[in-house]
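Example record

The entry below shows one chain as it appears in the dataset: sequence first, then structure tokens.
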Amino acid sequence: MTTLTSVHTAIRAALTGAGVHAVVGPADDLPTDPDTGLVGQTAVLWPTPGWNQYTRGCGLSSGRVDRVLITCVGASSFDALAVADAVEAAIGGMRITAKGGTLTQTMASQPVAEPNSDPRRVSLAVEYSTITKG
């Protein structure tokens, strides 16, 4: 069975490999543009515990639902949306295990300015889910 940390490590590696700045939350130090001081486009991953809802006839686990919530951050709504697009391009349909399912987007929110952030940050959340086996 694939471990929770290996699932989230594979997702982060796929994002980074696609050129998306990806960090595991909490993200206390986001990149900023040296010229403007604005926050750079970033995907902040919030790993969630697996959900072992599938069992074999013998009672052992046969698969696990794995989810990750990704906060897409940027200096503007369009920056946050651009991160969400890049995330989908990088991991949408990705297969974590040979026997499991593909990563599917299960939730998306709208861009919202984060209150009291300096420099200004706009973020939106997307969630991906898959069933891992083996």
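Notes for this example: The two ends are 5 Å apart (CA to CA). Helices lie at 4-17, 77-91.
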